[in-house]
Amino acid sequence: MEIRGNNTFNIDSWFEKTKEGNILVSYKGDITSDIITALVEKSENIFIENPEISHLKKISFHIVVECLQNLFHHGLSFEEGKPKFGTYLLLFSENTLKIVTGNFIPPEKVQLISDRINQINSMSKDELKTLYKLILNNDEFSEKGGGGLGLIDIARKTGSKLIYEFLPVDEKVLFYILKINII
Questions:
Q1: Which of 58, 62, 161, 180 is most buried, judged by most C-beta within 10 A?
Q2: E runs forming strands in the chain
Q3: What is d(CA 155, CA 181) in angstroms, rounded to the nearest whole number?
Q4: pLDDT in tens, the chain (183 residues)
């Protein structure tokens, strides 16, 4: 688990710094079902229009949808009835497709998220498959309905470790960043 920073987090400077390589899709703002639909469509078109990544379409498209759904379901809204905020980047660099998402979370979620990702990262592909089936068969779902299935599925499909960090915004909010590499 990594929490770093000095409580001077600036979303705009982080977002600009994170844009490395060939930027295919870049979004920062409210996360609504309409925005997710638009980002999914835009991402799908990127796979169709770019032959250098078209072979990654099937696996990547599923992961893009999962990541965007995570922003929608697990982000933090600062005002009742207002949309959640999130960031989404789809990048291509050094023969690797990179998906980077970010959203605000309360501090009490940090341990749960880091424990789950560390558990996933420590498992083999076969162990991930077994865990996935175990959660499905035991109806072991969270209040949001997933039980961590999305992260497990992402790790299974990419074969890559999930990279994450938490940047403090203030004493009540952190910015959670998830990076996924697809080779």
A1: 180
A2: 22-31, 84-93, 96-105, 163-170, 173-182
A3: 10
A4: 344 445 568 888 898 888 877 899 999 999 999 999 999 999 999 988 988 888 888 889 899 999 999 999 888 887 777 889 999 999 998 889 999 999 999 999 999 999 999 999 999 999 999 998 888 887 655 545 455 789 999 999 999 999 999 999 988 899 999 999 998
Residue with tokens 């933090």, as numbered in its chain:
76
Given CA atoms 159, 180, 135, 166 in this order, what sign does their dihedral have? Answer: positive
Residues in the chain: 183
User: How far apart, in Å, are the Cα atoms of 100 and each of 6, 64, 79, 140, 142?
Assistant: 22, 10, 25, 27, 23
